[in-house]
Amino acid sequence: MSGKPVWIEISFDQDRGAGHIYRNDKNPSAVGQLLLSEIIQNDNKNWEGCIYVSQVGRTHLMLMELTNPDLIHVRLWVGFIERTIRLNIMDHQ
Fold this sequence. Notes:
The chain is an all-beta fold. About 0% of the residues lie in helices and about 65% in strands. The chain is globular and about 35 Å long.
């Protein structure tokens, strides 16, 4: 996540995806936790699903857009508040 020491690994099983925390420098105990769920692709650059928001302790709907080959914008709504998160795409081989 841009500006945060968190790495997320997103994988798909058939047409559904999920994102688990792969690395978290500030909270190593978070590694392995489910962050993104029920991800489905709308078109070749957009997905929708759910994101876990730890501050409120529940999941919320999100939209993900591939804005360039190295960046995904994630839009989510918590009540009436909309937030955009930037995810930088990296290969963690």
